[in-house]
Amino acid sequence: MAEVIAIDGGYKLNGTVRISGAKNATVALIPAAVLSEGPVEILGVPEISDVAALATLLKELKCDVEIDGERIKVDPTHMEDMPLTSDAVNKLRASYYFMGALLGKYKRVKIKMPGGCYLGPRPIDLHLKGFEALGAKITYEDDTYLLEADELIGTSIYLDFASVGATINIMLAAVKAQGKTIIENAAKEPEIIDVANLLTKMGAKIRGVGTDTITIEGVEHLNGTFHEIIPDRIEAGTFLIIAAAAGEKVIVQNIIPQHLEALISKLKEMGIKMDVVGDSIVVYGREGDLKVINIKTQIYPGFATDLQQPLTTLLTQANGDSHVEETIYIERFKHCPQLDKMGANIDLEEAQSIVHGSTPLHGARVEATDLRCGAALVVAGLIAQGRTEITNVYHIDRGYDNIDHKLITLGAHITRYNIDE
Ligand SMILES: CC(=O)N[C@H]1[C@@H](OP(=O)(O)OP(=O)(O)OC[C@H]2O[C@@H](n3ccc(=O)[nH]c3=O)[C@H](O)[C@@H]2O)O[C@H](CO)[C@@H](O)[C@@H]1O
Ligand SMILES: C=C(OP(=O)(O)O)C(=O)O
Q1: How far is the CA of 66 from the centre of ligand 1 (A)?
Q2: 215 φ, ψ to 5°?
Q3: Check: complex ipTM more than 0.90
Q4: Which residues are identified as catalytic?
Q5: pTM of this prediction?
Q6: From 1.10.10.10, 3.65.10.10, 3.20.20.70, 3.40.50.300, which CATH number describes the 2-20+231-419 domain?
Q7: Tens of pLDDT along 362-398?
């Protein structure tokens, strides 16, 4: 038996949807909390399975964890230096943030390889190089890393690529290192700033986040604090795309519009009408044909790779050939054959797709091969004729807080049930 999300397409969406806290910030904020010597309370936590997996890992570390709706309280006062080798590590990518956090706290960590979406190879060599530069010795055996240091000593670290994960992970270790660490060619994603803000409230000394040079002055003690997570720009972007594809008038609330400038420009270029009103964006349904656009994924503030897949579905409704180039994950195109099963016409080339539009879409049984492929298929199901059944929904549940409920509130026809595989 397997769970599916079933969508009966063709219903126009109207109303208001509220965006949850950012997954990619949350999954780093929770491991960051273990660096503290007192309780850390985080608000705006999305209800996603990545958070549940992190809570399991916190309990394995003997942290006290309370989750109450959108609030999590992590109390590491009585935590212990335990190995993280259970299956929960493989449930998400971000379990690797315990590497930096536990290395910072205990100067030692034993942890399995992380999981997360397969988007082609996802090495962690830059994280490891950073830890080594800080003084850690690393061994790898049976899918498990052991990182150990007598002391962490601040140093200069240049990242060959502005990796989100490596920037955060090195920051997590460096806040407890002796002396000054400088991360050059650091990533600038808003989630990194959010993590630095929490660490700063805990007593860390960090400067330059949001630029490509981050300077961290190590401290001995970090204290408990309180933090509210920024809104999820990828969930917000997904709902803007959904509204553009299937909406009449949809208001997407709790957005930081500056975080979405690249997507907003591209949607406007396609002919979608939108108004930014404070922290909300009102999207008006499409009238007539959508215009063809080209997109190229880039590090922030460029076009986000995580929105490439859902936007591809909208491109199937544009009149002509749209070119989509991936520069972050050159194999991130597994959604394309799934969309083809629904009537799309997409050609794949090295690191790019060419979407031949416009093509009407029809319901089919399709597979969410990864989280944002799942989002692309949800967009497709909402505009397809007939019923779309999406399998492997656990990928979608890793990163979208109550997506069915939010869409039903807007007027979508969605159910979940089990099917025989
Ligand atoms: C939990 C989380 O925040 N996930 C996000 C994070 O993933 P993640 O942190 O894994 O992404 P990175 O920014 O690290 O990866 C970007 C590129 O660098 C490469 N790389 C990365 C690290 C490394 O040590 N060596 C290396 O070669 C990766 O294979 C990839 O090609 O940023 C990605 C890029 O915005 C997003 O798609 C993910 O949603
Ligand atoms: C790739 C993603 O997540 P992760 O890095 O957690 O696998 C994503 O959020 O699109």
Answers
A1: 29
A2: -115, 130
A3: yes
A4: 117
A5: 0.98
A6: 3.65.10.10
A7: 999 999 999 999 999 999 999 999 999 999 999 999 9
